[in-house]
Amino acid sequence: SELFVHMSKSYNDFSTGRTDKWKTIIQYEQKNIFYIFGNGPEFDRVILERKDLQKNGNDAANSILYLYLCGGFFSLLIVFIFGLYQIYLFHYALKRLGEKKDFYFSISLKIFIFIALRSFFENSYAYWGIDQILFALSAIYWNANLNTKFSKMT
Fold first, then answer.
1. Residue 117, burial from CB neighbour count under 10 angstroms (0-12, 13-18, 19+)
2. In 3-state terms, the chain is what percent helix, strand and coil (to 5)?
3. Which of the two residues, 56 and 110, has the higher pLDDT score?
4. Are 35 and 64 in contact (CB under 8 A)?
5. The pTM is what?
6. How far is CA 58 from CA 21, 47, 115, 132, in A?
7. pLDDT exceeds cutoff 60 at 23
8. If residue 7 lies in a helix (H) or strand (E), which one and from where to where?
9. What do you get for the CA distance between the two ends of the chain, in Å?
10. How many CB atoms lie within 10 A of CB 77?
11. Using CA atoms, how far apart are residues 124 and 21, in angstroms rounded to an integer?
């Protein structure tokens, strides 16, 4: 009960500063060329170091905002196309594979989905680290597995 009262007083305490970081990044004025191609790696840290947000870290805490700042709309477009393709494959896999049980396929798919959803609240796979390695490996495995199974079906 006491925790709920504290959280309800300040949404920022509950979100560990994410909402303030997101507001700062969205309000950042940049040159037109940077809208398209971005500002380069780890630019979120440059913006957030200038503000009084250091107590909560200096990362974007959102993969979409991080990709927008660092790679511009061009990188967002690439990730959006990749995401749509993965959703298509996921839908196709559910529709075509039915009840066939494959433990490794299932685990790789769950890891992929978890990291993709986690990217809305963390930099996750957008930044170099274990998330990116797991994300790429699970995507490679389940995409290759789908291609193999679909080629056998036809």
1. exposed
2. 75, 0, 25
3. 110
4. no
5. 0.69
6. 8, 8, 21, 19
7. yes
8. helix 2-9
9. 58
10. 13
11. 16
